[in-house]
Amino acid sequence: MRIAFTKPLFAWDELEDSPSLTTLRELLAALPDGKLLDSLRQARGKGRDDYPVHVLWGVVVLSIACRHLDVEACLAELRRNAGLRRLIGIEQESQVPHGWNMSRFLAVLGESPHRELLHEVFNALIQELGRVVPDLGANTAGDATQLSGRVAEQSIAAAEAAAGLPQPSGGRKEYTDDAGRVTKVVEWFGYKLHLLVDVKHEVALAYEVTDTKAGDGETLPALLTQAQANLPDDRIQTLAYDKAADTNEVHAVLSAAKIKPVIQNRSLWKEEHERMLPGHDGNSNIVYDEAGTLYCYDRVSQPMVRHQMAYIGYEPDREAIKYRCPAKHEGWECPMSALCNGEVLRQDRPRAARDRPPPLPELLRATKKFEQLVQRPHVGGARERSAENLLGRG
Fold it and tell me: pTM here?
């Protein structure tokens, strides 16, 4: 079959540039990767240079920027896209690296000192973004995802372990419903990638790779320290995470940094739904639940009626939360008013073991601001998409 094909008068696909290629060119030019490339060239020495270091590095960058599922997909596009090849210094299709060339390069990239220099490139980019984007990192979210891996040779694994690098292992994560029943199980062999991201701009601010046994709450303090170093002082205002970060250590770190936690409450009370305040006896009508929300009971009405007490502020000097009678605060009549004074109640954040730092103002779990941050639809998506972008999975 012979197909007649005639180029149009204005062959736009033959132009040297296109908006997408221009953007990629600007990205490659903006990367502060000079030290990294010099280090890789020195490590190569006078060996074969069939595929220069800048070409292999360019393939890695394009795989992420073009959101390819893997490096092989990027190599396939480079073989058929001459304009994209020229961006990273490849003149002919025969000069495109093979998959095994990229595997060896990625292995070298993960060795010291290249690994540390790669992390410096990431930090430098976030620091520059933090200077020019005034709200970058103000509201953050954290999460972890799985990374596939394989067992290295014994000598290589021993060297990595001596350098403090995590080793691949089997991971398992169970998802449960509100009743505690397991609804989904994910198993993999490899590592865990922990991310702290900006929930508005969907940009990763810090990352950490650990073995599969490392808990999210254990890794979060180091992740937060890295993000704080990449951003201007006191930039981070809130941090959202699931119940894996609902630990004493995490809350203490966030409280010391004046960062408001938007963290799901871990259920520890198995038999009871509410408790009396510390120091109160059975004559008191004030109780609290596991999330720390205070309620008062109208014991005059039959049946008794429970009302959520009105939160009216926080006293940092006394580390006390202030509540008021909801009837007095909202202006309605309560049959219990004759028995309770309806005055302001100052109370430390109630927890069973008195084990949590006091919350920051206006971010108790019972406040509207907390609900708005938790229900923000792009928080969870930001964690997932930022993880995918960093991994080059689209």
Answer: 0.74
Domains in the chain, number: 3
**What string of H, E and C letters represents the secondary structure of the chain?**
CCCCCCCCCCCHHHCCCCHHHHHHHHHHHHCCCHHHHHHHHHHHCCCCCCCCHHHHHHHHHHHHHCCCCCHHHHHHHHHHCHHHHHHCCCCCHHHCCCHHHHHHHHHHHCCCCHHHHHHHHHHHHHHHHHHHCCCCCCEEEEEEEEEECCCCCHHHHHHHHHCCCCCCEEEEEEEECCCCCEEEEEEEEEEEEEEEEECCCCEEEEEEEEECCCCHHHHHHHHHHHHHHHCCCCCCCEEEECHHHCCHHHHHHHHHCCCEEEECCCCCCCCCCEEECCCCCCCCCEEEECCCCEEEEECCCCCCEEEECEEEEEECCCCEEEEECHHHHHCCCCCCCCCCCCCCEEECCCCCCCCCCCCCCCCCCCCHHHHHHHHCCHHHHHHHHHHHHHHCCC
Inside any domain, residue 109: yes
Tell me, what's the pLDDT at 371? Answer: 59
Same domain (yes/no): 191, 150: yes
Q: Are residues 261 and 200 in the same domain?
A: yes
**Same domain for 170 and 259:** yes
**Boundaries of domain holding 89:** 12-117
Q: Does one domain contain both 301 and 259?
A: no
Residues of the chain with pLDDT under 50: 1, 5, 8-17, 348-362, 377-394
- Domain identity same for 105 and 62: yes
